[in-house]
Fold this sequence. Notes:
By secondary structure, the protein is of the alpha+beta class. Helices cover about 70% and strands about 10% of the residues. Helix 7 (about 165-205) packs antiparallel against helix 9 (about 220-255). It starts with a helix and ends with a helix. The relative contact order is 0.17.
Amino acid sequence: MRAQFVLSEIGVGLRRNLTMTFAVIVSVALSLALFGGSLLMSDQVNTMKGYWYDKVNVSVFLCNKSDAESDPNCAKGAVTKDQKDQILGDLKKMSVVDTVSYESQDAAYKHYKEQFGDSPLASSLTPDQMQESYRIKLKDPEKYQVIATAFDGRDGVQSVQDQKGILDNLFGLLNGMNWAARAVMALMLVVALMLIVNTVRVSAFSRRRETGIMRLVGASGFYIQAPFIMEAAVAGLIGGAVACGFLVVARYFIIDHGLALSEKLNLINFIGWDAVLTKLPLILATSLLMPALAAFFALRKYLKV
Length: 305
């Protein structure tokens, strides 16, 4: 097969169907940009989980005098020194516990004032209304239920709270958004495949005379099909390159510069450039193979060779 002939046929086909070729490039670029974005979102969620789950605490809040009057869990009164010592001792004996720290009422009041000092409620609170607590860091954040089972309802314990539950709600929202992006991506891929098939059909119909002559002189099926398949592959590859550009530009302007989220949101551990760069070959390979395979199967049905 002469490479020059195939390349010239590719150029002819792309020029003849310029509008549809442009539509293929745009649809492939958008769908693969969403595909890459969803992969990066998954990496971001996993990175955030690894970062935050390692820092979450389980808090065992102890009863104070105010709770004894209003909370059924503290009906037996405020926590006593013996109860606090017993709770601390039992916590340190548990194999799932990594570290235990104590927060006094004064320390809790100070932290509350630092975080919510502007709220109207802050001015009416006093240190004796705050709760003492033990903050427990677990070796495995998934073992929260072990602490809850051991201390919920115990004398002197008002409640056991797990910060991981708050994070789970956040990550659930992020995962939901990620699946929504994947659904849009799947729709865009279907549109792109339909455009590719139609483009190949139009191209094959417009060159039916040339292909007929090639069949008469004994050209093989693959020799006739190759220009059409490569046209779709080239259009797809251009779309894939555009999608890669979208991802690189988005990472640059959203996280590093422009919006500069990495500077404004210091508490979030953002994915690095390595996560982006490792996705680019996959996107380019998909942009090349997907249109080529779509064109191949379309030609088997619409091009009699």
